[in-house]
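Bench notes, afternoon.
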Amino acid sequence: MMDILQNAPRIGMGCWAIGGHFWSGDIPVGYSGSDDDESIRTIHASWDAGVRVFDTSAVYGAGHSETILGRALSGRADAIIVSKFGHSIDPVTRQMTGPRFDPEYIRRSVHGSLERLNRSCIDVMLLHLNELSVIEGGPVFDTLEALKAAGKIRSYGWSTDFPERVRAFASRAGFSTVQHSMNVFFDAPAMCNTAESYNLVQLIRSPLGMGVLSGKFSDGRVIPSNDVRSADRDWQGYFTDGRPRADLVAQMDAIRDLLTLGGRTLAQGALCWLLARGPNVLPIPGAKNARQAVENAGALEYGPLSPTVMAYIEQILQRPPEGEPRAR
């Protein structure tokens, strides 16, 4: 189906980081260093730079990301909002309290998101449980179809790295979008093929490898212990002991000159690599300040990397065959 995202500028803004802290037991699952006033300036800077797609979730900061986004985008009816549900949370303690995907919970979650976002309708609502089974997903998407019919959402999809889960529901009339991980470090050709087969928009999370591909950690800085990137390597995949993985830094350095051709920054080159992966690919890099927001949006001015540059990058990286997606 034709979806509002397919006509949007192809760089969005991810709003996980601006939600601030939240926790799963003792494990941080939010970003450190957020400031509400700076977050609003960042959203405004993204907007002024041409960004129209903003991705958030009910779980980010226990709803705080949605609240900040609603404040910043007040009166901007043409802003395109993507939100997600499926992780229940205690708003007082900011503790995640487990997966929830029963119909009543979904309806309440969407209602809460609408209130925090100050919207009468959410453009795209995504299931935020990566590994939910296809059998369990049936009633979820039935409920989303009913919410679409009621005018609460315009379309829906799934935030998952598993192509077979997408294929099970992609033929539904309201299913417009898959959100999945992909970046220069970790390609996702099977998901790309699935999305292209069903003409789905691909919202790309972790397009900058949780910040590694910005190059900002080359000064030796260490991630604070209350930041999601300090958590177990097998979960987040990009950092070890608060520092970028050495093997990823080596890969980044090997292709740095190719990514920065034509005056691109490293981050812009990484986003342009994604733009070259297909016309329905829409990266949603996070930003915590206006400078980052403007830099990210600036990738649109350069456009996709050329096929020749893409081929050189693949030769240098020599990727192994695509394996099983990491659990998220």
